[in-house]
């Protein structure tokens, strides 16, 4: 299908051409009723929403002269430009969404529903755009508990459309909603195909419940890792027992104390993780999921403190070479920083009820979100 002149102008970022085409069209449609004249702009606005070009967006608004009305009822389904921007925000093109949220005159678009009752947050959720969901939920004006005509909140829609074995993008979208305390509806209405962009079996409407068998390999892997950490921590506890004789540096006793404390925490945390995962071997799904909430944070603590213990132990046993101490400190600092960045997002309990914890867990979630954005940009370049 060929593109119209106004779509081509938007794609080529030609603001003057946009104004010229708009004025020419108004001359030819002087006797057209306002709603139809506004609908003519749907082509250009649709392209702006999908391309994410703010310059073209401003040019369209200035040419129309009706900043708010031109952005509503763009499609027969009652979608606004914020709906379109939320749906077509591929490859990190979130500029239009951010721009609309910054402008007070567009505040009425934030929670506006289309003809099926879906807000922009609903649409960004079911199309699995975690970055857009994150941007929308950060804005205090967005009503995360808004329900559509099916009685679904955004979280209900996510859980309804999510596969039994969800992808990383689906998990991040769900996490973005959970991190801000998005509520669930008290009563869910029957499933409607509009909520899912493609036919699929969701969690709620499917008769097949998640099986505990698919968690068996995960439990075994975590159990093996926990036993390995416990073994290493136990062995290390008897390897570094005192500061070598003749050492006069003040930091040697301090490093030994750090080693003892860190190694002890790593040892106990890994043992507790092992015992918890042994309980998970019973095979009950509810028990497995509850064990993960305890075992994953404990395993993360064990890994981090075992690394601290190793670094402190090396400071105790190395000689007096200054360059070696600097090398240990630099390499250890870089490694520990990377370890925290990788481990914390994996083990954080994002479903914590206290709002303070949910606010703190936003930061590791943001780190995971950067992986999705980077992946989108790489795909776009290819």
TrEMBL record:
UniProt cross-references to Pfam families, sorted A to Z: Ank_2, PGG
Membrane topology value: Multi-pass membrane protein
Gene3D superfamilies given in the database record: Ankyrin repeat-containing domain
Localization, UniProt: Membrane
Residue ranges the record marks as coiled coil: none
TM region positions: 219-238, 258-282, 294-316, 322-344, 356-373
Major place of residence: membrane
Record domain PGG: where: 213-317
Annotated Gene Ontology cellular component terms: plasma membrane
Keywords linked to the UniProt accession: ANK repeat, Membrane, Repeat, Transmembrane, Transmembrane helix
Name of this protein: PGG domain-containing protein
Organism: Brassica cretica (Mustard)
């Amino acid at each position: 299908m060929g593109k119209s002149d106004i779509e081509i102008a938007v794609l080529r970022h030609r603001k003057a051409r946009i104004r010229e085409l708009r004025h020419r069209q108004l001359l030819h449609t002087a006797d057209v009723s306002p709603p139809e004249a506004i609908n003519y702009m749907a082509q250009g606005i649709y392209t702006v929403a999908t391309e994410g070009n703010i310059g073209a967006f401003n040019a369209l608004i200035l040419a129309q002269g009706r900043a708010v009305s031109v952005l509503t009822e763009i499609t027969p389904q009652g979608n606004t430009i914020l709906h379109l921007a939320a749906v077509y925000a591929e490859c990190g093109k979130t500029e239009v969404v951010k721009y609309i949220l910054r402008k007070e005159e567009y505040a009425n678009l934030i929670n506006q529903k289309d003809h099926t009752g879906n807000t922009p947050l609903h649409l960004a959720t079911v199309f699995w755009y975690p970055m857009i969901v994150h941007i929308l939920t950060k804005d205090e004006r967005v009503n995360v508990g808004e329900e559509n005509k099916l009685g679904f909140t955004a979280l209900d829609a996510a859980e309804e459309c999510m596969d039994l074995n969800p992808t990383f993008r689906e998990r991040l979208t769900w996490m973005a909603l959970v991190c801000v305390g998005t509520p669930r509806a008290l009563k869910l209405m029957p499933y409607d195909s509009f909520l899912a962009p493609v036919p699929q079996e969701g969690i709620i409407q499917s008769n097949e419940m998640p099986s505990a068998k698919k968690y068996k390999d995960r439990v075994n892997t975590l159990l093996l890792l926990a036993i390995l950490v416990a073994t290493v921590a136990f062995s290390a506890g008897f390897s570094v027992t005192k500061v070598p004789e003749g050492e006069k540096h003040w930091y040697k006793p301090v490093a030994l104390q750090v080693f003892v404390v860190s190694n002890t925490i790593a040892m106990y945390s890994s043992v507790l993780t092992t015992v918890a995962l042994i309980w998970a071997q019973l095979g009950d799904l509810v028990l497995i999921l509850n064990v993960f909430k305890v075992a994953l944070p404990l395993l993360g603590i064990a890994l981090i403190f075992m690394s601290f213990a190793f670094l402190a132990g090396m400071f105790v046993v190395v000689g007096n070479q200054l360059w070696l101490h600097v090398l240990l400190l630099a390499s250890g600092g870089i490694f520990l920083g990377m370890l925290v960045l990788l481990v914390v997002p994996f083990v954080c309990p994002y479903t914590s009820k206290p709002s303070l914890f949910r606010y703190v867990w936003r930061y590791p979630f943001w780190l995971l979100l950067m992986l999705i954005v980077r992946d989108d940009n790489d795909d776009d370049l290819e």
